[in-house]
Write a structure and sequence with these properties.
Elements (H helix, E strand, L loop, with lengths): L25 E3 L2 E3 L4 E5 L6 E6 L3 H18 L4 H17 L1 H12 L3 H22 L5 E3 L7 E8 L3 E4 L7 H13 L3 E4 L5 H14 L6 E3 L6 H10 L5 E5 L2 H11 L5 E5 L4 E5 L5 H13 L9 E7 L3 H13 L19 H16 L3 E4 L3 E3 L2 E2 L2 E6 L4 H4 L6 E7 L2 H8 L4 E2 L1 E5 L3 H10 L4 E4 L14 E2 L2 E2 L12 E8 L3
Parallel strand pairs: 7-8, 7-10, 8-9, 10-11, 12-13, 12-20, 13-18, 17-18, 20-21
Antiparallel strand pairs: 1-2, 3-4, 5-6, 6-24, 11-23, 14-17, 15-16, 19-22
The structure holds succinic acid.
Succinic acid binds next to loops.
């Protein structure tokens, strides 16, 4: 086991070049809304309060929905080119303010400033992508079997959308949904993660500046009333679609609440990603892939490797190489330039990581790197060997920095074990055998596969899961489809 790492919990917050991007109000109808009832938002690295935002309830959410519904009447009539131009301007404004937005993101979420800068660029890329999709919302003409009729289809926006966001990508999860919604001609009411409202509010400030019309983008912040806000979004008949990223348990609840009004649904839910290293793999590349996939965002992404399966012939070598790299990580405040990995989001997240580690160790696993809670929300990036199927990590998403290494013998066995889960978001494997690359890619039950790559997310590619990992696809040429209806027009009497 490595020695306990030192870490920094108190640093000076860099000054924003434009302090007006840090807003402490909700945003409805292009107006900043305050309320006497507020909740505090903490820096997860220090536990210190960053600021306070309104604790909005169901009634205020209903008002925001009314506003979005009103704005839909005009926004849905704009041309694709008009929506393109506005999304492109919003993209430009985000990139022009990348450093300030990254600073706000690190402050509220904890990820390192380097990762936050990356998330701002990744997040902005969805606006650039969907700006370009807004002008390509093509319909079809269908060869008609009837001589006096012509068949065609057009795509139309579904209506106002309720968007419910997680804490782990405060910017990119918002833009991935809002970019598609606005490009399609929908308006939105967004509920950001209660831990991270400031990134969403900074984006609203930029939306207003670039001329996104009033009511098209609305943000309600909530903590104590969060269940009521979610329920209002899901049951209000004026909301025509719900897009949610978060846990499978909450996704199931929101889906059942939405059924009464038959809303269109996008659900990007939990994963339990297998990461498979075959004995013909380039081991150094596999180690790099595992580091990137497992420890991105300190292990707090839905696509993080959760079960690392290594073929028995290369198990020891892979474990040694991975542990050596992980031991070099530096845990600390995201603003400290030496930090490679920031804190977890809160104490509940730390408790879960500790529970998974204790469970594994009590059943015979061995810690070969890290392994300690460091105080506050910090936990050492950890590598554990000797994992077995009866351990919690085999079934549950850790959402934290533990790389648990399981051993396997054959391709057939590992496909079966990898698929033995209700989840199917991402899966990864490393092999240099081209036949195996095809076979395994096709047989893994997941929405996304990294074949010799540990990072797969891109605005160009469809993001989403199968099984209990969700419904729908975000980003890519398919992303806009989740926000439109296809209308068939039969032109008769010709
Ligand atoms: C997620 O964790 O939900 C998203 C990760 C990504 O976009 O790569």
């Amino acid at each position: 086991m490595s020695a306990t790492k030192s870490f920094v919990t108190s640093v000076t917050v860099p000054k924003l070049s434009d302090p007006t991007l840090f807003r402490q109000e909700a945003f409805v109808n292009n107006e900043w809304i305050s309320k006497t009832e507020t909740f505090g938002v903490e820096d997860p690295a220090t536990g210190k309060e960053i600021g306070r935002v309104p604790d909005m309830d169901a009634k205020e959410t209903r008002q925001a929905i009314e506003v979005a519904n009103g704005a839909f009447k005009t926004w849905s009539k704009t041309t694709g080119k008009q929506r393109h131009d506005l999304l492109k301007k919003w993209y430009d404004a985000i990139m022009a303010n990348q450093e300030d937005l990254a600073t706000i993101l690190t402050w509220e979420n904890g990820k390192t400033l380097a990762e936050a800068r990356g998330e701002i660029a990744y997040g902005a890329s969805f606006y650039e992508w969907f700006a370009e999709e807004a002008v390509r919302m093509y319909g079809t003409t269908i060869p008609s079997p009837m001589p006096n009729q012509r068949y065609l289809t057009i795509k139309q926006p579904v209506g106002p959308v309720g968007i419910i966001l997680p804490f782990n990508f405060p910017t990119a999860m918002l833009t991935r949904k809002v970019g598609a919604a606005l490009a399609a001609g929908c308006t939105v009411v967004i509920k950001p993660g209660a831990e991270v409202p400031y990134s969403a509010l900074a984006l609203c400030e930029l939306a207003k500046r670039v001329g996104i019309p009033a009511g098209v983008v609305n943000v309600v912040t909530s903590l104590e009333h969060v269940a009521d806000v979610g329920k209002e979004l899901c049951t209000n008949p004026d909301v025509k679609k719900i897009s949610f990223t978060g846990s499978t348990a909450v996704g199931k609840l929101l889906m059942s609440q939405s059924s009464g009004t038959m809303k269109k649904i996008s659900m990007e839910l939990g994963g339990n990603a297998p990461f498979i290293v075959f004995d013909d793999a380039d081991l150094d590349a596999a180690v790099e892939g595992a580091l990137a996939s497992k420890f991105r965002g300190t292990g707090q992404t839905c696509v993080c490797a959760n079960r690392i399966y290594v073929q028995s012939g290369v198990y020891d070598e892979f474990a040694k190489k991975l542990a050596a790299k992980v031991a070099d990580f530096k845990v600390g405040h995201g603003f400290d330039a030496n930090t490679t990995h920031g804190p977890l989001i809160n104490s509940r997240a730390v408790e879960k990581v500790q529970r998974h580690l204790d469970d594994a160790v009590s059943k015979g696993a061995k810690v070969v790197a890290g392994g300690k809670a460091l105080g506050g929300n910090f936990f050492e990036p950890t590598v554990v060997t000797g994992m077995t199927n009866d351990m919690a990590i085999a079934d549950e998403e850790t959402f934290g920095p533990i790389a648990g290494l399981f051993s396997f013998d054959t391709e057939e066995e590992i496909i079966r074990r990898a698929n033995d889960t209700p989840f199917g978001l991402a899966a990864y494997f490393y092999s240099r055998d081209v036949g195996r690359v095809w076979r395994v890619s096709e047989q893994l039950e997941s929405g996304m596969v990294g074949a010799n790559s540990g990072i797969i997310s891109s605005c160009y590619a469809p993001f989403g899961g199968v099984k209990e990992s969700g419904l729908g696809r975000e980003g890519s040429l398919h992303g806009i489809d989740d926000y439109v209806h296809i209308k068939y027009i039969n032109m008769g009497g010709l």
